[in-house]
Every structure is written in structure tokens, then in C-alpha cells.
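User: Run a structure prediction on this.
Assistant: Running it now.
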Amino acid sequence: MAQCLLSVHEFIQDSFVPKIAVLCSAEADRVTRKNNLNFVELLKPFCRLTSEGHIRDPNNQLQTVKNLRICVSNVVTSPSPPASDGSSQNRLLSEVVFSCQPQEAAQATALRTGDYHLNLNVTTPWFEAYRENFLQSMPASDHEFLNHYLACLLVVSSTEAVPVEQFLKLSQEQHKIQHSGEYTNPKWFIPNTLKYYVLLHDMNEGDEQRAEMVYEDMKQRYGPQGCYLLKINSRASSPDEDEQIPDPWSQYLHKQSVWNQEVLQLSPAPHVVSAQDSVVAPETNLGDSTEKGAGRSGCLDTHPLHLDTDTCTASLLTLSPVDADGKKSTGDTDNLAAAPGNHGTCLTLNDHDRIRQFIQEFTFRGLLPHIEKNIRQLNDQLVSRKGLSRSLFTATKKFFGGGKVPEKSVNEPKSTYGLQYPPEAPELQIRKMADLCFLVQHYELAYSCYHTAKKDFLSDQAMLYAAGALEMAAVSAFLQGGASRPYPSHYMDTAIQTYKDVCKSMMLAERCALLSAEILKSQAKYSEAATLLIKMTSEDSDLRSALLLEQAAHCFINMRNPMVRKFAFHMILAGHRFSKAGQRRHALRCYSQAKQIYKDRGWSLAEDHINFTIGRQSFTLGQPENALQAFRQILINDSRQTATQQAAFLREYLYVVKSVLGESESCLPQLPLPHIHNSATRVYFGHERRLAEGEKQAATHVSLDQEYDQDLSVLWCQLEEQLAASANRGILPSNFQPTQCCLNNQTDNLHHPLAVIEEPIIVEVTFRNPLKVSLLLSNLSLLWRFSTGTPFGGKESTSDQITDEMNTNEDTSAGKNEEIVTTEIIKEFYLGSEETKTARLKLLPHKTGQLNIVGVIYNLTSSLFGEASSDNEGQQTLDSMMIHGRQDLKIQGPRLNLTKEDKMQVRYGTDRRLEPVITPPMPLMEVFFLQFPTALLCGEIRKAYVEFCNVSAVALCGLRVASTHPDFFTFGSQSTAPFTLPSSRSAENYSAFVTFPTPLQPGSMSSETLVSAPACSQPSGVTEIPIHGSTLQPGQSVQLPLWLRGPDQEGVHEINFLFYYENTEKGLKISHRVLRHTVFICASRSLSVQASACRSSASPLDDKGSGGTLVFIDVENVNASESGVREFDIVQVSSSSQHWRLHKYINPWNNYDCRLSSQERAKLCFKAMRCKSHEGSDSAKEYTFADLNLGNERIMSSSPPCGDFFFRCRQSSVLEQVNSTPRNSRSQDSGHTDNTADITSIAKKCNELDLSIIVIWKAYVVEDNKQLVLEGQLHVALQTIGKEASSLIPKEVQLQSSCLSTAQWKLPDLRLPDETQEVMLLRFKSELPPPVILPYPELSQLIRINLCYPETFTHHFVKESLCLVPVTLTLSNCSLVQIDVIIDLRQKSSSSESLEVHTSFAWVGQTQYKLQLGCQEMVRLTLQACFFRAGVYNLNTPLVFAKPAEHTTLCESSQQTTTPALIIINNACPLLS
């Protein structure tokens, strides 16, 4: 139970107090009325004694009476039991609970249990008021005497002519009421009732001396202990303004006046309501639930968790909120508590003391002695009647006849729950004595008497009497205190069950339950108390059930381990019963407290019921804000209700909003439906792209239909950085910001986006309908706020701010807004059941400034409301249930996680995607493509056209383009002469190359062209678009040819173009604009070109001292037959290099046919020569193009588009190599300066070739019975002599190469000797490391060795035994550094090849040479070989050692060639050989 102001002892003592009757004369009543009080009301505040009293029990033991309170009331007679007593009491209690409402300013107590954080009202003053009034209003019963009058105050004024006569009349009247038998009420405790005579003297009117004389006469007549002179009204009725007299009567008068009104009228009184509580509907019955009138809402009688409002007749649509400032009910005609200062106006503080003294004198000198006397008399009577010396309490029944049933009067009604005793029955005498002892706090004697009476009543089967004795015995046992006698709770349980089931008296059972529950609560037995209270709930009284359920809920929450969910459940039940009893405020309070437990816990159905009830009660009580919040919560949560129930929820919400707002739209409400996915909001700046027009294909650019790709966004940003740097002389501007046309939750939204005036802003808002009911949004538009100031220009000017909050398509005042921003309105926007749908809303700004998109405004209704009715009625219903409101777009920025504070706290950045800055006009370009293919052969060259259109009113310049595949396209010649598009027929055999008629002749040399590299290549990958005048005027368009080359690798390729252009006016906020385009090209296999090079074995003398290299080219047709290509024709082979060139074609004369069908292969052999030194110097940066045509036409490979594609492919390969090399490896290579690295680089450099092969082909395709000629070119880059290069890398080979690159780390590291060398240097600094054996393939080509000798030599061995043959040894330095060479002729070869021939020869003359060869220097040595006999000899026996001149001998390596040099020695005299 909740906490109470009184302790359990104080509560029980105040529940059972001595009752005193009052009879006043008319004159005495007039005297007290001067204070706006009657005599009973005058005594009310002073009825509690402040000092202790004493009595003596029958054993002459002194007993102390503490904190005694008496109950004084007027005598109200009733000739017969009132028929409406129960209903009047219910109305009284309902009014008491209704008038005691929870204060809104009262602070709730915070309670934390588990993961629940609750704010609860720990006190329930309405329950205490109900309990107090319930106990005070209980009628007197015959089975107990606690509510019977013990004494009667006879009050007469001293102004009476003969006061004694008035006393006599009042005494006779009291005697008549008690003993005549005409009145059943009131009931008196004992026949000889104490009469106490009070002479009331008005100090302002009466004669005080006369009053004293009358009082002396009274003392002579009634004794000094039976009368009293009370002097009041010591001052005039108008007190001084400065004098403040306390008013102790106000707290007692309101409830007392209502109670007196009910009792006196004995009929249902008009309902009295205070001004602050006038919100209760007048048709609601405050009485008990058994009196359900016709005005009672039908839905209040349903199950508490039933929410089907279709069957509920009390829908909010039929109710109207009551004005909270309503007038007071006309039934409140006798409100004595109208003003706090109107009571006791003629009384002074001395008068207060006199009244208090009077009560004390009456109690101590009259009432307590009277009670003590009666206790003794009852005890003596019982003892004398027994005639025995035994204890009274052991022989009472035997003396009075044992278990015999006393005779009953004929007029006594028959009882259905047991017999009734006559007043003189000894059992009642025991009960009467027990009640007297209980009233004067002698609980031990009272318990003994109750216990004895209980046995007698049970033996007589007088169940009502027995239940009363059990009840009071249990209370007396508890009030005794100490551990001698524990509280017998089973007595109370038996009494309650007897009252309910046998006696059918819920009133007595309720009193018993209230007492027992309070006792159990004081003993912390909350579970037992809750069980007891719940048992007392029934359908006969909604108010009682509601109060008891609420107290049971408090028991659950106050337990040692709080049962939170049980608390919430019983609060819901209590709120439902409060609602049925008409206590709407208390029902709202119960539901609100229970909501804390069910909120956000997954109990969606229970939460819906709570919010729905709170919404209804709040609306009825005139609290529209709370009602809106409750109904909004229902619609916001993901409800599991049926579609019909959700439709009812929506209808209630719409009606509440409509009723609260009315026709006023000065403040648009925040609507809960539909849900807006704020983070999914996307904003697009600019016009939507035009679709394809005929053969034109528009650039894809950016649209809201495209999905955002983070990796692709980074790629576009890199391309834009390249373009911006190219336009700014290679330096990226410091204020560069990448262009973002479409903003979403993954883009960078920290800065204000820039929008252009007169260009639309499209906002895509994602709506979600959480209900199973379709929604209709009409007149949907964006809500914006505009200011002429910008965030870059300082503080905004609020005077220029204009808002379109109230702007709808019907609003005539929207013209001013349209001059600033044109707002697009969607007339109807349907959302189906649980549908998620996007709406694209458009704004068109007409002025520069700051635009803030605040949210959306629309009319909300359900499309189901008007379907069942006719057209006119349905439209009226739809209009009546339509509300105009808004929803704000509140986008939360990304979570901050940079600093330590950000990581420790939850912080979010800003998101400014809805805060664009409107800038001045900017140029706007559109790009269209014509004859753009979707499929190409690998290396195929195709001509397309691109059209640039300036669709804005501003000229543009600085047009550039960057691409992820710069080798895919070229604009060809920079000339911008007008051209016409070729017709489809002429385009069939249109050649892409520049050709000259040149017949092929055997042994013809190549045609050479010298081209400067900067004139053709684009190192940055950015291409300037050749537009005449470099400016495109407004409305102007231009078409340019675009050469395309199919990718070298087969498959589908995604190729991105980024077009860049600027405004002719500089210094604007938007420095440039870009346009994106993405194409997908399907590349099919064409030819596979494999090329390799090797040094020529011919003598350098044959090459005229320049050295030659053989180039072998294998060409294979790898095209699939399904593509329709019949055959490929290799028309020309060209080369491009700074150092090398193809010299001539050395294939046999009859092998010039290079037409390849499917899967055919051709092998070509060319001789390559070095370029002249002045032509191939590094400083010139010039490339030599050499063309060797295999047909009758020579193609200028250096001219566009052939030369352009060569340079673009070369640049792409260089960039790929740079990007593929890790930075750390590059830094290690650059910092590695040891000898081994130098030798390796020297060896590699001498083998470098750097010769690019260009194979130009034609393909013949049959399509639609027409033969088409396709042209293309393939590139092969020969980098190293002896290493094969390919033009086509199939997917399978790529996968294998990736696997090999991963596995190559398992091979021995060639630089392992270096690492070993470093470790050994650290350990042994004084010793040199051992020689390092370098890899043979890398250093074998440092020098080139050639032996010149006769193949056959004849010698006459008979004449001369020794044969001397001259041999010329030619040494050529292939590197670019000086080489030290050592030639040793003394060693003998041990190779397997030389063992197969004769070895019996020797070198004569100088056998060891030390030479130094300069850069590419050639040296000839003349040697002599001496043979002893005829035979075949291998002259390749000299050992040659070479090393770079700047290195030590540790790096010497053998340079012996492996090719045999065979010589045949013939004998001139064969017979002798």
C-alpha cells in the first residue's frame, strides 16, 4: 500500500472513537451562526485532546488514555431505514475521491529497480480521504456498539428567557428519541445516556452576570460535572484588518457539508463539482457502478484491454472537450467553505481556548467517568448474575442459560445469516463491555471480552456477531503491542469471508479488509496485503475496486524485491475501474504511471491500450496536448493491431487534432504519419538529364535513379582533381572542393552545398507507412526558409527571411514566395499498407542567398474513410477527417570519433545537405554521343561523334575531359574545320588511317618519321577538347569526331568520362562544373601478337659497326567464329622508340601473305637497328616511327589516330607500372647504393630494348549480306632482349600470373647475398666478405664476343707439323659504362659440347689480355691457334672476365659464350694423316 500520513495505530484509533450527540436550541444555533458555523462545526477542530486522561478498570488498575478524539454530530432521526442509504453513501464517497485530485505541482518520487526508472506518487491522499469518510459514514449496527452514541450535549443559549426550561425540553426530546421506539436511528450505546448541559453565552449580546447565575443554578440541578458555561463571540463580526485570526474549520467543513446534505435529504442530491474539476462530462454518473444510467459510455463497461472502438459508442467523434474554466454547478447551494476567512469571525484566540477547555472538561469530567462507571456496572452485573467467585469470562454462558437461543420478538425481522439477540442478552453485554474498553484504549480487557463473545456467538451460530467479535479481537490483539500476542490475521480472514459469503455485507467486509491491510502493511507483509485487497474487488462497486487495486499495486512495488510488472498490470486494472466509476482524472493518473513500465519494452498491444486510454481521458478532461502526444505515440510505434483497430486509432487522432486546432493554422502541428527515414533523404542539384533523342545518346551524369558507390565516388574525385590541377597549371587549388551533385548519408555533408539560381533542387524523401491502413497525402510540398545572407558573408539578416510554412496551392498569399522560390506541389501521394515509398519534391530558387529546407507540409487523411459512403458524403467525411500539418527533416550527422572526447562521448557532426547556398548563374553543358558502339574487337578503331551543347545563358570555356581509360579515345587532329557526318554507306569502308600508295618490294627498308613526344602525349591523362575559340556561347553546340579503340583485354569494360568546363567570369563561388558519363564496352578477341628479340650472331662488320637485333613476331587469329569475322589481314608493322627502329623485313620473298583465318598463325621476322645518336638522344624526347607495309599502301603510324593511341597506351602502361610498384620498394631501390645493385642495373640496362611494335590490321566482316572492313592496331612493348612480350593477356593467364606473383616469394631471394654481406660486415669489420656470384643471365650480355676465322683450313702436316691459323676476337661493350675485360687463353674448356670435338690445339703468342672498353666500344684482337693434326675443333675456349670499371674484382664474372666456334682442319696429304 501507499504511504499514509497517519500511522497504523493513529488510523485505527481515529476510526473507532466515542460518538457524542448534540441537541441545540434555536437560539443557541443562532448564536453560533454568527460565525458561519453551527455548534457541531464549531467544535470540530478541537475534538482531539492534547492531554492524557485516566480511568480505572474493574480491577481498579489505572489505565492511561492518550491522544483521544471524540466525534460530535447532530442528532438525525429517521423513522425507518432509508432506502437510498447505500446510493447516497456511494455518491458521498465518489465526491470525496473526486474532490481529492493529485496536485500537478507535486513532485513524484524517483524509484529505480532493475533497469526501470520510475516516477511514482508514494502517497495517495484520495484513498485516505475515501477510507476516512467510509469509516465515518458507516451506519450504526445492532451487532456492535462502536458507532452508537455514548452521550448527548444539550446546548441552550443564555439569552433564553428560561434556559432551564429549554434544557428540560431538550432532555425530554432526547429521551423520546432513545426510548419511544419510534425511531430506529440514531442508536444509543446504553439506556442511561450521559446528558451534558451546556450553557452558551454570547459575550456581545447576553448578560454575563445573568449567565453566571443560570450556570450556578445548573450546577445545583445537574451537578458541577454535568454542566458547563461556554462563552464565545468575544468580538464584533467585523474584525480589524490588521488582526489575523487562524481558521481551523476550513479543512473539516466541505466534506461535512456534503455528508450532512446527503444524510438530511435522504435522496440523491444534485452533483456538486468545484470549478477546477468541471471537466467531467455531466452525463457521467459518479455513483456506484451498479447504478449505470443511460448516459454511461458503453465502451467503459468493456474489458480493460479491449480496444475495438467500432463497437464503442463513446468515440471521441461524439465527445467534445469540456472547457476547463466552466462555471460552478448550480447544485452547490450550501457551500460553507466559500472563502477561508469567513469562519469564526466573532471568535478570538481566547474563545478558541475556551472551546478547547470545554471539550477537555467534558471528556475528563463527564465522558470518561461515565464510561468507567458503565464498565464497572457491566462487570458487576455479570459477576452478580453468576453468583460465583470464578472469573466472569469462564461462566457467563452457563449462568445465562448455556447455549439456549433467546426468545425473539415477533416484530424482529428474520435474519438470513443467523439469529439476533435482544438488547439485554448477556452476549451483547459482553460485546458492549468490550466496545467500551476498546474506545478508552484498554485493549487487553477488550481482547478478552471479544474473545469470550466470539466463542458464544460461534456456538449460537450468530455469524454476524461472531464476525464482528473476530474483527475487533484481531484489532485489539494488534494494538496491545509487544510480542506477547501476535496479530491473528486468520481472525480477519474468517471475518471477511463471513461478512462477504454469509452475511452478504460488503460494507463490513470492506472495513475489515481496510483495517487488516493497513496492519499487514505495517508489518511489511505486502504480498498478503495485496492478496487481501485484490479479493475485495467485485463488480458491485467500481470505485472501491479501483482504490483497492491501486493499493494492491503499491504493495507490489513496495516489496523487498519490487514486482514492477504486477504493479503496472494492477494499475491498469485500477485505471479501468476508475474510468467506469467516472473518476477520469484518477484513471488518467493510473494509466500514466503504468505507461512507464510498458513503454519501449516490446509490449506493443498493452502500450497501444494505455496510450489510447490516456488519449481519450486527456481529451475528455480538456488536456489536448497530452491527448495528441498519446495518440501520436500509438501511431509512431510499430503496432501489431489489426487494420480495423489501426484505422480507429488514426480516426481518433485526426479528430483530436481537428478539434484542437479548429480552422486556425497559425501553428502547424507535427504529424506522426507517415514515418520519414531522415538519414535516407537525398538532395540533387541541377536539371535532370535529357533522354536520348533519336540516334543521340545523352551523357549519363548523375541522377537519383543511380545507387551511390563509395569507391566510384573516390574515382570521380580523383579525375576531378586531375582536371582542376590541369586547368591551374598543374597545381590543385587550395580551396578545391569536389563537385557533389547528389548528396546522401554517405557523402561529405559538412559544408554548405552550392546550388545555382534558376536550377532546380530535388529532394527525395523516403516515407514509410507503419500502419495496415493506406494513407493519403495531399498537397505535399517542401517547407523552406530563405534569407539573403549566406554563411560565407557573416550574420544573416532576419528581416529578409521569408518562410512558406502556410503556403499551399490554394493560398492566395503565396505569390510573394513564388518570386523567391517556386515550390512544386504533389496533389496526391498514396501510401499503401506498410509501404515504403519515395517522393521527389522540387524547389526552383529565383534569388541568391541561403536556403534552408526545413521539412515537408501536407494534408493527412486515410483513403478508407470516404470509401463506404456515397461520393458527396465520402468527400465530406474525407474533408472533415483531413488535417494540415508538417514534419521536420532532422538529419543527424556522422558520429565523431577523432578526439579522445569524441570517443568517450556520443557526439555527432553537422549535416548541411539541406542548407544549400544559392549562387549566381553558371554555365550548363549537355553532352550527346552519336554512332557510339557498345561492342568492339580488341584493338579495333572506330569513329564516333560527340556533341557539346551549352544550354545555359552563360558562356563556358576551358573544356577538358579526363577518363579512367585515356587509351580508349582520342579526338584526333586538333583542326576544328567543319566536317560532315559520313553516311552509313560511305562509313562502311571508311579508313581511319592516313595512307600512301607504296608497293611492297623485296628487301625494301622502312620509312622513318621523327615525332616529338610532347606534341602527342598527355602525361596527366587530361585531354583538352578542341573547340573553336575555346569558348562555347549560350545556346551554341558543336560536334567533334571521337576515335575509339577497343581495349586490349577481352570482356566488359566500364569506362568513365569526366567533362570539365568553367565560367568565363572568374572569382565565383563555383569555380567549375563537371559532367559525368559512363559507358560499358564489350571487347572481343581479335589477334594475339607475341614478340621477342635476340641479338644477331652475325659479325659486327656485317652490321657496319652499329650492331643488329632480330625481332620475331608471332601473330595468331584468336577471334571466335561467332563474331562474324572471316579473316584478318596484317597490312603493316610499325615501330616506335627513342633508340631502336625496325630496319627491314627479312622473311622469305614468298611468305608475304598475312591473311589469317580463324586459329591461323603467322611468323614474321624483322631486323632492328639502333637509331642515330642525334635522333635518339634522351634530351630530344623524340620518337622514331618506322613503317614496314605488307601491302600496297603505307600507313602513317605517327599521324592521328594511330600515333595518338600509341602514345596513350604507352602512357597508361607507364602509369600502371608506377602505381603497381609499392612505395616502400621504390624508396628502397632508390636508396640502395651497393655494388651488387649497380651491377644488376647496369646488366639490365644493357639488355633494355624499349622498342614498341605496332601491328595494323584489317578485318573483314559479313553483316546483312554486306562486307564491312574493320581496322585496328595492336601494340607490343619489347622492353628486354630475350624476353617475350604479348599484346593480349587472356583472363586465364591473368589469374595464373596473379597466383605466380603470390607464390614467387617462396623462391630464393636473389638479394640474399646482399643481406648476408651486411650481417657479416657487422660481425667481422676487418675482413672482406667472400666473392658474390651474380646471376649469369643478367651479366652475360655486358660484352658481346665474336670470333672471326675461316671455316675450313688446309695444312700440309708432312711438311710442317704445326698449323697456325689466324683468329680475330671482336669484343663489343653492350653497356653504357666502362668495362674492364680480362681474356685468359690458358684454361682449357671442360664443357660437354667442346669434349665432342678435338681439343688438341693451343693458343700461341700472348695468352692473357687486360682491356678497358668504353661505352659501346668495339675492340678487335688478333690471335693464333696452333693445331697439331687434322680434325674439327671448337675455338670457343677463351675465358673472358668482365666487370664495371668502378667496381672491385669481387664482382668479376665469366662472360664465356656458349655457342661453339667450329673449324675444320684438313690435311694436304690425307694419306699421311
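The first strand starts at residue 19 and ends at 24.
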